[in-house]
Each structure stands twice: as C-alpha cells, then as structure tokens.
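Notes from the 1:1 (GR / supervisor)

We went over the backlog. Supervisor wanted to see one worked example end to end before approving the batch request, so GR pasted a single chain during the call. The sequence is below; no edits were made to it. Supervisor asked that the structure be written out right there so they could see what the output format looks like.
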Amino acid sequence: MSCYFLNNYQRAFGTWPLKNRKLSDALQCAIESGYRAIDTAQMYQNESETGACVAASGVPRDEFLITTKVKPANLEQAQFLPSVEQSLKDLQLDQVDVLLLHWPPANGDIKQSIKLLNEAATEGLAKHIGLSNFTSQMMRDARHLSDHPLVTNQVEFHPLLNQSTLLATAAETDIPLSSYCSVARGEVFKQPLIQEMAIKYQKEPGKIVLRWILQLGVSVNTMSTNPTNIKNNYDVMNFTLSSVDMTKLQALTKQNHRIVNKSVVPWAPEWD
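Structure output shown during the call:
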C-alpha cells in the first residue's frame, strides 16, 4: 500500500503559495488539527520555513510524512542530487519521506529524471519516490524504468475535471493518485449539486468534495489559511457518500474545468 494511504497520511496539508507568517500560522494550525502529511516543493520557495515549523512543532519526526518535489530546472544530472541535498538542509531532515518529480521534462523524455530519482532513493536521500503531473503513458513508462516503487502521481483532481483515464492507469500501474487543487480553487462551491449534498449530509461543501476524492482511492492535498477550514478539511473521515451520490458527483467531471493548463504552465505535458 502506498505510504499516502497509511494512517492519516491520506490527508495532506499543502503549503503553496504560503510564506512567512501566513505559512507558520497555517502550518501550526494544521499540525494542531492532526495533519501529519505536509507537502512542499523546491518551486514553492518555502522549504526552509516549512522545515522550521515542523521542527518547532514538538511532534516526533517519525510521525510526519514530508513530501517535497524537484523543480524542472534541477532535472539535469549536475543539479538533481545537489538540489535534493539542499532541500534536506532547508527542511532540516536527514531524509525526506517522499521525493517527487514536480513535472516531467519538457521534452517528454523521462528516462534520465527517473534514473536520478532512483539514485536519490538508493543513496538514502528519500525514503519513497514518486511523480507529479505525469500523463498515463508517462506513468507506464516510469513504472518500467524505476527500480524503486513509485508511491504516487500527484495531479490536479476535483469533481469538475474528468481524470478517469489517470485513475484507470493508477490501477493498472499500481501508482496511486494524489490530488492538488482539490476544491478547484473554490469553483466547486458554485455547483448547486454540491451545495445540495452539503445540506443532505449536514457537512460543509468542502467536506463533500474531499470525501468524494478519498472514496475514489485518491489521497488529498488541501491548503487554507483559515483555521476553521483547515480543521474542516481534515475532519472528513466520519461519514460516507452513497454510491448514488458518488455517481451524481462524477457527472460534474464532464465540465472538464482544468485549472493547470499550458496557459498557466507552458511546460505542462499534453494531458490525457
């Protein structure tokens, strides 16, 4: 089983785009609320602050699952491992729990980056390795190329985007998905169906969305600076959506509202 689905790690607190006091306040609240999976990245430029918050929390190191990601500029041989070593220094860690490739190489050739990712694991810099923003075919190729298990492919995932192809590939390759943009930057709250289900289940709309994602076998990353929302996003394990309501929510994915596209990230691959 992927480390993302062990204990309470399937609910992670994402740190983008937080910095400074906003980051420390939000992360402290998240940890106090029960979060033990923390997600950061080289591109976020907040690894040092994240590491300091975790170290100051008083929670034992072995209770955390810390994920960081190698940025595209560091995918070459000369930069890769030194950049991971710098991330560990910034995070105040001897070993990161999960190291992801933040994006596949712009040219689509993943062979070298998968090799370097494996080297990071072999050298003990990362306990687990995985992917982010990889297409279905890239997932298949990565599994073939990797000597170490790939514990996740972190992708945009919410009820307004059809990711059924990636879900099928996750089952095929045994590389589970994890979500970012889990509430579509607030767009899900404009959906009458989600508001209706919130009333039906007597839960906040965000909980309906996160529960739908979890019941599909996808772990969730959420970010908020609002203490109430931080706690609500974590407290989603005490109810279950019916199969009928899961299907109704699935119908919303026909909208194919993708947030992270080439207009936002020019080096993004051609999505499934």
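Supervisor's comment: The radius of gyration is 18 Å.
Batch request approved.
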